[in-house]
Structure prediction request, 267 residues.
Amino acid sequence: MRAIVLREFGPPKQLVAEEVPDPVPGDGQALVEVEIANITFVETQLRSGRVPNPAMKPRLPAVLGNGVGGVVTAVGASVDPRLVGRRVVTTTGGSGGYAELVAVDAALPIPVPDGIGLREAVALLADGRTATLLIRSAAPAEGETVLVEAAAGGVGSLLVQLASQSGARVVAAAGGERKLGVAAGLGASVTVDYTKPSWPDLARRRAGAVDLVFDGVGGAIGRAAFDLLRDGGRVCVYGMAGGAFAELPEEEVARRGIEVVHTPRVT
Prediction:
């Protein structure tokens, strides 16, 4: 089969198609013929070698890719044979998705209902699971004010919709008028452009104190969002698109009674 192999960290041109042996599904595994491979922001960091955590750096050569959509073509021992022929989306366990075939734990594939395209299903795979876990963990409630950073991005746009559906008032922080318009169209009541230094003051004037922050940016933006929380509020830190996690001093978190919401790791 063909796979996209990374032998040297760097720009996208380092991803090269090569012939590699076909995987064989082992006990408890399913073999998926890949039609669409997802590419996430984290995978671009892995490809470049500029990872936020050294432990994340893959050993080369590597086949990246943690999310795919396709058809199950074979299963290993102890797996229900009725899975064969099903259209599915699945994670791969961390790597191997940039290939024509991938063997995965048979518990991972999610059947795609008729009427939903694989492209759309794969687009929701990573960000949809993340957003759902975040909402379940942080549990925004009716009447609360929720600040979502990167509100027009993959996870952020879903958080805006899910938080709005819970009855919360959503403050969307994003960069530029186009993205703010997207967030408003998805249900945000207040929008602020966090590329402008005055955005925290504007958010405070328009929305008052915030009950819950979804921090997927980190850095200075994440810290400014933390400062908008009311005492006793909640912050859910799930990303560092800005390059580093926000600095949240433990003593200040404790003094203000802030709850730091932890979510299960998504693989």
The first strand starts at residue 2 and ends at 6. The chain has seven helices and 13 strands. The two ends are 25 Å apart (CA to CA).
